[in-house]
Fold these 2 entries.
Entry 1:
Amino acid sequence: MSGRGRVPSGQPTIADVARHAGVAVSTVSYVLSGKRAISEMTRSRVLASIRLLGYHPNAGARALASRRANVIALVLPLRSGIQVPVVMQFATAVVTSARRHDHDVLLLTSDEGPAGLHRIAAGALVDGLLVMDVELHDGRVPLLRDLGRPSVLIGLPAESRGLTCVDLDFERAGQVCVEHLATLGHRRVALLGAPAAVYDRGTGFAHRTRAGVLAAAARHGVHAVALPCEENAAEVHRRVADLFARHPGITGLVVQNEAAVGPVQATLAALGRRIPRDVSVVAVCPDQFAEHTSPRLTRVPVPADQIGQQAVSLLMRKLGDEPAPEVTLLPPRLTVGDSTAAAATVDTSLP
Amino acid sequence: MSGRGRVPSGQPTIADVARHAGVAVSTVSYVLSGKRAISEMTRSRVLASIRLLGYHPNAGARALASRRANVIALVLPLRSGIQVPVVMQFATAVVTSARRHDHDVLLLTSDEGPAGLHRIAAGALVDGLLVMDVELHDGRVPLLRDLGRPSVLIGLPAESRGLTCVDLDFERAGQVCVEHLATLGHRRVALLGAPAAVYDRGTGFAHRTRAGVLAAAARHGVHAVALPCEENAAEVHRRVADLFARHPGITGLVVQNEAAVGPVQATLAALGRRIPRDVSVVAVCPDQFAEHTSPRLTRVPVPADQIGQQAVSLLMRKLGDEPAPEVTLLPPRLTVGDSTAAAATVDTSLP
DNA sequence: GCCGAGTGTCGAAGCGCTTCGACGACGGGT
DNA sequence: ACCCGTCGTCGAAGCGCTTCGACACTCGGC
């Protein structure tokens, strides 16, 4: 036993590589980082040794010395009313693009609260943060401001100064839906929005969509009602039946809630209203989902991939101390399916 | 300017705490880790300084010195046919319980492949791995074996020796569903399983459920057919209609696919078969989902929370060098809803 | 009154990496 | 022939933490 040595980790270290290649440790480091010129000969010799020994730099040591962990945090919502598949799509998009920038992703849930963010950021476990599902008046915003680490929000709080935010332009999305219906001659439409709880906590995308719908309706002389919409079949049924009882002339529906689409279809069928003959339906939902319903939905997809990618790019820019725009809103794109058609002459004799 | 010093990070270090509390650095460390006895007086003085300075240990330094990153990797599937909400539930359960063990979670997607796992593990970014959606003959299994880091699989590969696996006992789940139907007097049942692609790649849970269904059926003298089931409405409709055309006597349905439940209900309605009067339906799906359908489903939930928690516990045990069982199968629990009832006298005059 | 077994604390040696300054070797301008 | 700038490499100093051995003390037992 040689004194107080601990057991070696087993993994080869940069010193092993240096020894094997017959160069200094720092040279190996520079080969890896490219921060100084290295002759082609040395370079290839070092790389060969690295491959041969199966060397992987120790993340902790690297983080300690360089003050960069090459890890970003992804703060996901765990709340009710979130659109699970969309969130999942975000997450994978974020992981994939982060890897493309040579970063890994640490998964946080908001339920550890501000303390969690603080712990992570202060402990230098991550270099920057990506925060999803931001509310209009989000308590985490001031925290992010003085966390001392770059961050990007997915979503748009009421006050975005000094922050970096990315999102779909939900207001435009709402407008686009209504404009599509208006063009088809619909004069009375309704928005089946997010669950009431989502509006209550002031989640941006729900409010902005509603605002867009109402604004576009007003502009085009369309009568519009907006109501929240829960995700379970029974409740959807009740709401939709009630809606048509009150407003029998409605011929256009904008559905914001992927989970509600199925029940809405079923309810319309039960009410004897066919899609798109009697009622046209536009949904805000993933393309993949829309393609699998019958009839195929006319929809405005939430481009989770793009948003995720964009968010990562912006965060990387900030990590590199480059300036980043405060607000990036991606333009919505409406894809016409088979669930919308020209408005029929109003037939008030419908049941 | 004092020579070659770099800019200090801004965060207080353990040395700052030690100085402030008037003790040695090592004493602070021992207060934090509890690995040596510290007098109550010193202890509280140190803790006060920590709080006052807002000290958070640097994760990199800690990882480097202790050879433990206090981070585990969660390897999520990104494939088609996965049950997104269930995966999400897993993920959150894992994050939450990991935090309870003072660990964070690094999110990996399998699409970086084995190289990704290797990079992470060799670089000591994580102490252990949690791998989801394991296939019967999963290519990652041999890799995990010689990765040199503890791992726990969620799912059950064909050969589980030397591994640690957690899952719902899907075989029993299948049995329980059939037994429930058999007890109610059903004599012809069908399993609408996972999408064909899921069987093709040999995903354990799908195969095991099918085996359980068929075995229980045989044992109870029930006639059973099992068929894969895609997730889009049109396809479901085709399959189900075809099924009843071929086997008009079927009165019991086991549906394994949350996404298929809605379309199945719609199809049955379209075929003029009422639930549960004409057809009883048992689903393998989350409780929350089952509660929101009408009628409320009889179901065997996948206890994603429990599985996730259990997986983390096992991984922690392995990280502490304690032995862990190779296979942990959680017993399924059937909850009776309103979608199953006693089999009606066979009425072959049905359309 | 002395020994041995704790207790509580300290100092120092790393953990594996990055980065800074230094320095020899070379080459082009004058 | 000389100086200077550039290129390629090296050595060493940390980064902030854990952990080991050492070293006072205190206390009970004989």
Entry 2:
Amino acid sequence: MTEPSPPDPRRAALMSAAADLFFERGYAATSIDAIIDRAGGSKRTIYALFGSKEGLFEALVRENTERMFGAALFGGEELSLEATLRDFATHLLELFTNERTVGLYQVVVAEAGRLPELAASFYRLGPERGRAWIAQVLERAAARGEILPCEPDLAAGQFLGLVRSDVYYEIVLGLRGPLSDAEIRHIADAAVDTFLDGMRPRG
Amino acid sequence: MTEPSPPDPRRAALMSAAADLFFERGYAATSIDAIIDRAGGSKRTIYALFGSKEGLFEALVRENTERMFGAALFGGEELSLEATLRDFATHLLELFTNERTVGLYQVVVAEAGRLPELAASFYRLGPERGRAWIAQVLERAAARGEILPCEPDLAAGQFLGLVRSDVYYEIVLGLRGPLSDAEIRHIADAAVDTFLDGMRPRG
DNA sequence: GAGGTACGGTAATGGTCGTTACCGGATTTG
DNA sequence: CAAATCCGGTAACGACCATTACCGTACCTC
């Protein structure tokens, strides 16, 4: 799909400018002229490299998804279950609440109706990898008896939701800025505690 | 804010057509002409009633948010904690995975950058009411010793995330259609079980 | 050093769309 | 019944914008 193209500075500048604008203002509100004003170069270059505005947008989404989510987040060697979950929750929150990642998600949601395959490939290249990994982690933990038997995929989805909690919902709506490290740690720890032990008093 | 206007069939027809189009195709991709084609009437009526395309959009979002989320979902008299949570989870999933609600959310997210106050009022009039109610329920349960002491707001956010889990994320991206009643029950029950007791074996 | 190619800048084209103006008929009002 | 108001339909206006064409220059090749 992506040829191992030699690094092209014009292409990189376009991508960077396009990311700034598309992620901040959305697809429709971003004009080709605005991208050129920011990146320099000329429109011919965009059409030579990407064919159309939509082509640029799709390339942008795909490459950013891979770059953001590909960063070796998922699948390190396993520590204890609890430590693994804590690690994952922290990294997940860092990633998901990052301004760029939020912008990417917002614009993919906004265009999901018009470009369903793009939304699907975003999910597959991005969030689904984390989900699949956690499902595996949980499945192995269940086999070892460290957690109750469960449907690993359902449980993984629960854990993701628990970590994102309502904070992510607010962030996506633009109601909260990015989280501090302390907030991230607090939410991640609370999520792992609840996921493993629940809120009901033991014993 | 909203005068108790007498029911105006032209206004209602416009609202309904606008909802179909805005929620399905988004703000920019919906033209005034398309709304008129579907609703009948003339553009003059839109500009007389709403002033502009954006005015129509804002009225649409506000009224639909109130209508969808106002439906006495939150705050019924309390059963047992567990039954209350199960009820709430089921209703929340029914509401959030409903096609209309998803469309509303998508378009609010898409325009959140351009219309931040609209996104804020959507959250306040809608999801926040459920969150505040659950926080109260949890606070009382903690006072009774039925659950561990907790920060009620944090715990409420966790519960919401746990119920939405990853399924909602997928639905918002358009990757899944609405859920069947059986799926809703399954996910809601699993969420309550995990929230109360966690995944770790007891004893 | 000559010829050609690549590229940035700018203008032109064609279409869409929000908004406003105009027209004719229907309905209401005195 | 006459006058005025309302409203649907259509056209006009102006702006924006994706896309393409054109032009001049700089660099690269031979």
